[in-house]
Every structure is written in C-alpha cells, then in structure tokens.
Amino acid sequence: MESENKRLNKFIADSGYCSRREADRLISEGRVLIDGRVGVLGDRVLPGMQVLVDHHPLSGQGEKVYLLLNKPVGIVCTADPREPMNVVDYLSYPIRIFPVGRLDKDSEGLLLLTSDGEIVNRLLRAAGGHEKEYEVTVDRPVTPDFIRGMSAGVPILGTVTLPCKIRRTGERSFTIVIVQGLNRQIRRMCEHFGYNVRSLKRVRIMNLRLGSLRPGQWRELTDDELNELLRRLS
Asked: Which is catalytic among the residues 89, 104, 106, 139?
C-alpha cells in the first residue's frame, strides 16, 4: 500500500520539506540519502528506512500549513537558501514551508506557501485552468487596441498565450486574469505591444484573495478557503 511504500519524491514532499518537483531536483543532485546510500529517482521508501536531505532527517509526514503572504518587491519565490532574498528565510516560519508557484522578484502580491507537497502537484495538474488576477500599471496610456490584443492571445516564448480577461482601470492601469504561468508572462505580453510594466501586483489566486494584507504581512487560510481550494483542485 502507498502508506507503507512510497516513492522517494513523494516521501520527501509528504514530510513538508519541499514540493515533489523540488524533491526530484534534490535527488538528482545526490543530496538525498536512504539508509546511508545516495537515493536515486524511482527509489521507494519502506517503513523504518531513514531518509536524509542535506543531512536533515525526514519523518515522511509533517504538519500541513497553508499561508497567504503579500510578497514584497525584491523577495524571491524560492526555498533555496543560496538565494539571500528567498521567501522562506524572509518569512521565517517555524515549520518548513515552501512557495507554491511563482511571482517574479520585481512583482508583489498574493503568494501561497505550504508544507503540503501534494497541493503543488494538484495545482500543476490543473495548469491552464485556475485563474490568477493582477493589477498592473504601465508606462503608456492603455488603448482599446492594447486591450483587444492582450485579451486575444500574445506570441511570447515560442507560443501564443491563451485568451485572457482584461479591463482598463485608469489611464495607464488595468486588471488582467490569466490561467497560465509562463515566465514573466504579463511583462512579456505588454512588451510585445511596446509597453513596459511599472508595477504588478497579484490580488487573487483562484478563490484566494489578497484583501487587506499589506506588503510583508501574512495569514493562515481559513477552513472555508482551504476546503474550496481543495474542492477546485480535486
């Protein structure tokens, strides 16, 4: 049974150490030991085996924590301690957590962090289906042609973005709802039309909203928020 015999990457994720994808990277880099030997991708963990990541022992089942942070500009969405501005050290939460998804260093706003490695995989499986909403200001007046072009799909990174919802909110500002997570997607979309992003704030991930959180502030998900999030990911 899975509860008695887990793949190594799932065991690491279930411990709350990191996501399953990050666990694959750690295993590939030879940083994971099983009973004293270097683990490899595809290894399975049986009851009683000792698993170490960077010499840190894992239990295989950690406390599940779900947090919302208003990430400030300058903080990097990684758990890698080699990055001095990594979000995990910035938050300094007493339980091992890691960020879900990306929000680039120059952007601010809503970021989900958790000790639950499985939720990352469920979000990835839902890729292209869950909405993320942003408030954006740019360096030029927002025109009807710009709105039409952005909403229809934009050629970036060798592909064309999916159609999105966009609404002008001021002379040089708009809100945009996307269902993808391409690298610096909104900034690249704007650049395609000759616009430069001046500020970008994520205000919603699916049913989770930034609300009144100020930059640097965080809170736990409510039971209703978590239940609805898990329902949408099921």
From this structure: 104
Residues 34 and 111: their CA atoms lie apart, in Å, by 33
Q: What is residue 59's predicted lDDT score, i.e. its pLDDT?
A: 65
74-88 pLDDT, tens digit per residue, is 999 998 889 999 999
Nearest to 197 by CA among 215, 216, 172: 172
**Within 13 Å and on the Cβ side, how many CA atoms surround 118?**
14
Which residue from 122, 16, 120, 3 is spatially nearest to 64, judged by alpha carbons?
Answer: 16
- Nearest CA to 162 out of 141, 146, 142, 176 is that of 176
Give CA 91 to chain center in angstroms: 15
pTM of the model: 0.77
- What pLDDT score does 128 carry? 54
How large is the C-alpha radius of gyration of the chain?
20
29: nearest Cα among 9, 46, 7 = 9
SS3 breakdown of the chain: % helix, strand, coil, rounded to 5? 25, 30, 45
- 35 among known catalytic residues: no
Residue-wise pLDDT for 106-136, tens only, equals: 999 999 998 887 777 777 665 557 899 999 9
Cα dihedral angle (200, 201, 202, 203), rounded to 10 degrees? -140
Closest residue by Cα to residue 176 from 166, 184, 162: 166
